[in-house]
Amino acid sequence: MLPVLSSLVLIGVTVLSCTRPPASSSLADAAATAPPALAAIQEAELRKDLFELASDSMRGRRAGTADELRAAVWVAERARQIGLEPAGDDGTYFQFYPVRRLTVAATTRLHINGQPLRLWQDAWVTAPIEARLDAPVIWLASLADTTGRNLRGKVVAMNLLPPVPLPALKMSLWGFRYILAALNQQGAALRAKGVAGILLVADNIAEPQLGFVGHRYQDGVYQLPAMATAAPIVPVVLLRQAAGAALKSGKARVTADLGLDSFIYPSVNVIARAPGTEAAQRQENVLFSGHHDHDGIGTPVAGDSIWNGADDNATVSVALLAIGRAWKKSPGRRSALFVWHGAEERGLLGSRWYAEHPTVPKSSIVAVLNADMIGRNAPDSAALLGSTVPHRNSTALVAMAVKANEQFTKFSIDTSWDDPKHPEGWYFRSDHVPYVRAGIPALFFTTLLHSDYHTPRDEASRIDIGKLARMTRWMYATGWAVSNTAERVVVDPGATLER
Predict the structure, then answer these.
(1) Which of 79, 115, 132, 431 has the CA that lies 20 to 30 A from 23?
(2) SS3 string of 327-394?
(3) Judging by DSSP bridges, how do beta strands 365-371 and 335-341 pair with one another?
(4) What residues pair up with 371 in beta bridges, in sequence order?
(5) How much of the chain, in percent, has pLDDT values that exceed 90?
(6) Cis bond before residue 159 (omega within 30° of 0)
(7) Are 317 and 292 within 8 A, CB to CB?
(8) With contact defined as beta carbons under 8 Å apart, do 17 and 470 qualify?
(9) Cα 349 → chain centroid
(10) Which stretch of 3-17, 30-44, 303-317 has the lowest confidence by average pLDDT?
(11) What is the per-residue pLDDT for 298?
C-alpha cells in the first residue's frame, strides 16, 4: 500500500462509522446466484502461499531489484501450476516496463567548517540534485528573520519548525509525515526568498525518526520515464542536532558537492487469465488486481531489517491465486484476468503502466476488483472504498459487492475512509486508481491500516488467515456476479474524482 505524500494536505479527523452503501440494483439481483467454488478457497493453501511469499528469503520484494523479480517469478509459477493461462507479453506471464530511479550519488560530500558530515548518518539530502555550495551560512532563528532581508543566493540554516497544521492524530507513519510537511513548508518559504541552499536541523520530534525517514531519502525517487520531472534547483539538507550545532554560531561555512545518479531498472507485472465459458462474453474480462512488491531491506528496527510486507501486499497476491483456483474449478461466463502489479510502493507504477498498456483490449475490461491489505484488524470489519460519492464510479458494481457481502461473508463495511476529508487519503493509495482514471468501473477492498504498516513487523505470523480467506471469498463472489450478469456494469454518468 503506497504511503502517498499527497495525503499530507488533507486535514481533520474523520469519525469511523459503519454505514451502508447503496442498496442492490436490478443488475446485481440478476447475478445473485451463489458462486459455485467458494469452498475451493482454502485457508491451508492461503497460509502456505503467504508464508512463502512473505518469507525472509524474498527479502521484502523491493521494486527495481532482483528480489522483486524473484517474487514475480514465484507468482507466475504458482499461476502456471494452478492452470491459469499466461496473459502477459509474447505468450508469457510477464509484462516488463522501465522504471527510472534518481538517487543522491555516493560521491556526495558535505562539510561544515571543514569537518565532514556522514551522508545518511549525520546529514540527509532530501532530494537527488546536482549542486555545489561553498559559502558562509546565515543562521535564522525563525522565518520572521527573512522579512526585509536580501537572502538571494545565500545559504541559510535554521531549526526544523513544526508544520501547520500538524498531521492528524493517529495517522499512519506520523513521524514521517511530520518531517515531510515541515520540510515542504519551510523549503517553500525559503526558496521563495531565492536562497541557494537550505540546512534544517532536526527538532526533538524529528530527531528520533531520522533513521526511518532518512532511509526513504536514501532510496531516491522512482518514476515511469513519461513521468520524469525536473530535478530541484535548491538543495535541502536535513541534519542531526549534533551535526547542526556549529551552524548557530553565525560563523559557519558549508562546502558541499552534491551529485545525482540516474538509473533505468526493470519492473514487472504478472498477468494470467482464466477463460470464461460463454462464447459471446469470454472476450470480456473481470480484472482482479493486487501488487507483489514491498519495501525490501531497510534500516533495522529491533534488529529486523526486512520489510516482509505480509499484509502489504502478500495477502492479496495469494488471494488472487486462490481466486484463480476457484475460477479454474468452475469458470464464470466472462473471463477472469489476474494482474499482480510491480512497483506499487514506488508510486503505483505497475498499475499506471498496465492501465496505459494493457495486454488485452482496454474495452474488454469490464471491472477492476483491487485489494490492498486484507488480513488484519477486527475479524468482522472491512472497508470497501469506491463505494460512496465522490469515489464511487459504478453504482452497479458497488451493489454487486454489497450483495455478495450480505449473502456470503457478512462483514460490517466501514465506508468512512472513502470520505475525501479523511486525513489518510486512503482511496488514492492503491492500484485501482489508474483504472478509475481510465474510465473503468473499479472497487478497492481492504481491512485498513494497522500499527505494523510499513515496518519490519508486517510478518506472515501476524495475519488473520481466517479473515484473509473471508476477504478472498468476498472478492471472488463479487467477481462472479460481475462475470455472470447479462449486462456489463458501467461507469455512472458524470462520475469524477475530486483530485
Answers:
(1) 431
(2) HHHCCCCCEEEEEEECCCCCCCHHHHHHHHCCCCCHHHEEEEEEECCCCCCCCCEEEEECCCCCCCCC
(3) unpaired
(4) 445
(5) 87
(6) no
(7) yes
(8) no
(9) 9
(10) 3-17
(11) 84
Would the pLDDT of 23 be above 60?
no
Q: How far from 418 is each of 1, 23, 53, 339, 443, CA to CA, in Å?
A: 16, 17, 30, 24, 11
pLDDT at 343 over 90: yes
**Domains of the chain (ranges plus CATH)?**
5-101+264-484 (3.40.630.10), 109-258 (3.50.30.30)
State the amino acid at position 384 in one-letter form: L
Give the 3-state secondary structure of residue 152: coil
Taking Cα atoms as reference points, which of 45, 79, 41, 32 lies closest to residue 478?
32
Answer whether 0.70 is exceeded by the pTM.
Answer: yes
Record the cell numbers describing residue 176, joined without a space.
514521517
Q: Determine contact, residues 361/296, Cβ cutoff 8 Å.
A: no
List CB contacts of 230: < 8 A, sequence separation 6 or more. none
Torsion of CA 15, 291, 8, 237, to 10 degrees: 150
Q: How many CB atoms lie within 10 A of CB 342?
A: 31
493 grid coordinates: 454518468
Go through the chain and tell me how many residues it has: 499
The average pLDDT across 453-482 equals 97
Flag whether pLDDT at 98 surpasses 80.
yes
Band the pLDDT of 250: cuts 50, 70, 90. Answer: confident
User: Per-residue DSSP letters for 407-450?
Assistant: III--EEE-GGGSTT-TT-GGGSSTTHHHHHTT--EEEEE----
Alpha carbon distance 445, 311 (integer Å): 13
Rounded to an integer, the average pLDDT of 329-340 is 98
Q: What is the pLDDT of residue 33?
A: 67
Residue 310 C-beta-side C-alpha neighbours within 13 Å: 27
What type of residue sits at position 337? L
Grid coordinates given for 374: 486484507
Return the C-alpha cell found at 324: 484463480
Q: Is 422 helix (H, G, I), strand (E, B) or coil?
A: coil
Which cell numbers in the block locate residue 119? Answer: 551522508
Q: What one-character DSSP code corresponds to residue 473? A: H
Q: Is 270 helix (H, G, I), strand (E, B) or coil?
A: strand
Residue corresponding to grid cell 462472479: 480
User: How far is the C-alpha of 423 from the C-alpha of 178, rounded, in Å?
Assistant: 13
Q: Where are the beta strands (DSSP E) in 83-204?
A: 85-86, 94-104, 109-112, 115-117, 123-125, 131-139, 155-159, 197-201
Q: Tell me the C-alpha distance between 167 and 184, whole Å.
A: 13
pLDDT at residue 18, as a whole number:
40
